[in-house]
Amino acid sequence: MTEALYAKVYDTLRSRIVDGELAVGDRLPSQTELAGQFSVSVITVKRALDMLRDDGFVTRRPRIGTVVVSRTPEETVDGERLPLVGYLAPGFHDAFGSHVLLGLLAASRHHAHVTLAVTEGDADLEERLIEEQLARGIEGLILLPSSSQAIPPTVATLLGRRFPIVIVDRTLAGMPVSTVTSDNVAGGRMAAEYLFDRGHTGIALVLSPNEISSLEERRRGVIAAHAAHQVRLDPDRIFTDVRSVIPGSTVTAEQDVAELREFLASRPDITACVTAEYHSARLVLRAAQEIGRRVPEELSIICFDAPPEFVDAALPFTHVEQDQHTIGRRAFDLLARQLGERGLVAQETVPVRIVEGGSTGPAPRQG
Asked: What is the pLDDT of residues 118-128, one digit of tens each?
């Protein structure tokens, strides 16, 4: 009789999940509530839930409860339930983001289910979305944080519990957390070296005030290249106020272009710009064109990342290319290792390379 009772509970709940009455991400009632609904004991309910878990329909987490993670048993491999992992990022863009996601999905295929959320660079939204992902039953988290200065409180708590977490494209000083980043210092150095090799010495650095580690690392690389060439990077050639590219900013692109026009017009000795972000490079190009500075004849521009060339068919940017696909794959690989070995911490750095385009040329002749 007891076997028939738990089988009945199992069959009913399974049917509700398969039919979509209980959707992926939904939380089931508590064991006590289910026992009341089915007029059975809590032990009977627990056995039915164990069967649903073993068949890959649900996951069960302390303090959260039982959450639906799959509508079909086919979403398991060789009878083994696949874990549910979360990926949160400010957005998924052609210049940076989309290919990180593709690499992550390629690596997770047949190994995990991935649920996605966009934080829009909003720290409060980021915190809420992490909580929502946890409520859905994720067993690991890959996060591209909105900031490198302040870690979300929930993440700090999870790290204390050795919950599997991998941080992408950011370094968090002093935090025992796995990270996967590009070699941004090398990228900044390579960008400046590329311009020095073409005779430029009046090199400007353009970046946003966004508080993320990758920008500071790129700045350090540019400074290191100047030091190696015994050329002083004049602070007056550093523009750090491109604000429209920051997620959630109320500053318009037109406002940034106006300030960049003034910056370039007042410094005719600048013959080249290293821009730390692709969208900033587009604003520098607009500003140069509006004051009559020809690119690349009178001003060279090199940036980090760029979408496919057809997007900027008139002038594809010379850029430092991050291996985004590898970043995504390695992030998932590190998370998968943590799922098997809680508390594992590793940092990986992915090499970058220069991709030549039409936005750079030799330094203009003086006089």
From this structure: 998 888 999 99
CATH architecture entry for 2-76: Orthogonal Bundle (1.10)
- Tell me the one-letter amino acid at 45: V
Which tokens sit at 90? Answer: 């400010």
CA distance 187 to 197: 15
Closest alpha carbon to 35 in 46, 50, 51, 21: 46
**At residue 97, what are phi and psi to the nearest 5 degrees?**
135, -50
Angstrom distance (rounded) from CA 53 to CA 47: 10
Q: Read off the tokens for 12.
A: 């009913």
Q: CA nearest 29: which of 58, 7, 3?
A: 58
Question: Considering only the top CATH level, what class is 184-322?
Answer: alpha beta
Angle at 111 between CA 68 and CA 53, to 5 degrees: 30
pLDDT tens column, 209-225: 988 899 999 999 999 99
Q: Mean pLDDT throughout 162-189?
A: 93
pLDDT value, residue 1: 37
Select the more confidently predicted residue: 355 or 150: 355
CB neighbours of 156 closer than 8 A, spacing ≥ 6? none
Q: How far is residue 318's CA from residue 67's CA, in Å, rounded to a whole number? A: 48
SS3 per-residue string spanning 226-267? HHHCCCCCCHHHEECCCCCCCCCCCCCHHHHHHHHHHHHHCC
Rounded-to-10 torsion of CA 263, 215, 252, 126: -160
Same fold, 2-76 and 82-182+324-351: no
- DSSP per position, 32-76: HHHHHHHT--HHHHHHHHHHHHHTTSEEEETTTEEEE--SSGGGE
Q: Where are the domains of the chain?
A: 2-76, 82-182+324-351, 184-322
Residue 168 token pair: 């992408």
Q: What is the CATH number of domain 82-182+324-351?
A: 3.40.50.2300
**Per-residue model confidence (pLDDT) at position 276:** 95
pLDDT tens digits for 28-72?
999 999 999 999 999 989 988 988 887 778 877 656 678 887 776
